[in-house]
Design a protein that fits this description.
This protein has a five-stranded antiparallel beta sheet with strand order 1-2-5-4-3. The chain contains two helices and seven strands, in the order E-E-H-E-E-E-E-E-H. The longest helix is centred in the last third of the chain and has 8 residues. Strand 1 and strand 2 form a beta hairpin.
């Protein structure tokens, strides 16, 4: 989930859609790091402001997204109220100039997803640096998944 604007969040389409019949995404939690603590406090004694739940006004899923596939797996969450930026809640700047996207250069990914092939999920936000791969390498690895139907789908 990426904070793009005080009222707009970019996330995966599969995360934005209801997981069970009769349920829908109603809020997002902003400023969270460790889901077992509120507020999040570091060993140094610094504590971030408490995380805040923001109601979702509406969800805009990519019109070509198909459940269970990775192609067009993207959505915007429009919040009812704007987020007040804090040390723990800041917008993300997306890359405008692709010339800076160099194969082999490292990029950081973050989230609370699975930490291995098991179903175990971390209570703390995880991050890791991964090298940017060439289009040909992405096709070899992910081509059969349907995620890479066209180079335009990647951005």
């Amino acid at each position: 989930m990426l904070l793009l604007h005080r009222r707009v969040i970019l996330t995966a389409g599969h995360c934005a859609l209801a997981k069970a019949d009769g349920h829908r995404l109603s809020s997002v939690r902003i400023g969270e790091f460790d889901i077992t603590k509120d507020p999040d406090c570091a060993e140094s004694g610094f504590c971030a402001p408490p995380a805040i739940n923001h109601a979702v006004s509406h969800v805009v899923v990519h019109p070509d997204y198909v459940t269970g596939q990775y192609h067009h797996d993207i959505a915007l969450l429009i919040l009812r109220t704007p987020i007040n930026y804090t040390v723990a809640a800041q917008p993300v700047c997306l890359q405008r100039d692709r010339s800076n996207l160099v194969v082999g250069k490292r990029s950081t990914v973050i989230g609370w997803g699975k930490i291995s092939l098991s179903s175990t999920r971390s209570s703390e936000m995880q991050h890791m640096d991964i090298p940017l791969a060439s289009w040909d390498q992405c096709l070899r690895v992910y081509g059969s998944s349907g995620a890479l139907e066209s180079q335009k789908s990647i951005g």
